[in-house]
Amino acid sequence: MTFQSPSPFPAKGGQDQVAFHRTELAVILSLYGRMVAAGEWRDYGISSLRDVAVFSVFRRTAEHPLYRIEKRPKLRNKQGQYAVIGMDGQILKRGHDLKTVLRVLERKLIRAID
């Protein structure tokens, strides 16, 4: 008798869904916590689709996302699997290392004090 543990994301049509790994989520949620403490962000949403995983950041719950952090494993060998996309759909940063890609958002924390 063999025992197979259930998958957290059941495959549909033989395809697995893309999801953020625990270490990736730790990096993203660390940044999210700092931005919430600064009063910049208020809510987030996570989507796991067939070819992309998306972490969306909102200023208010009922808005369009301010930023989308996407993971596309198919681009791993080309442009990099991580991308930060702005509200208007413009790619702000793309790369292979998640921490490096998220630095574009950390600059928002640095402000001049009046």
UniProtKB/TrEMBL annotation:
It holds the Pfam family DUF2794. This is DUF2794 domain-containing protein. It comes from Roseovarius bejariae. The lineage of its organism: Bacteria, Pseudomonadati, Pseudomonadota, Alphaproteobacteria, Rhodobacterales.
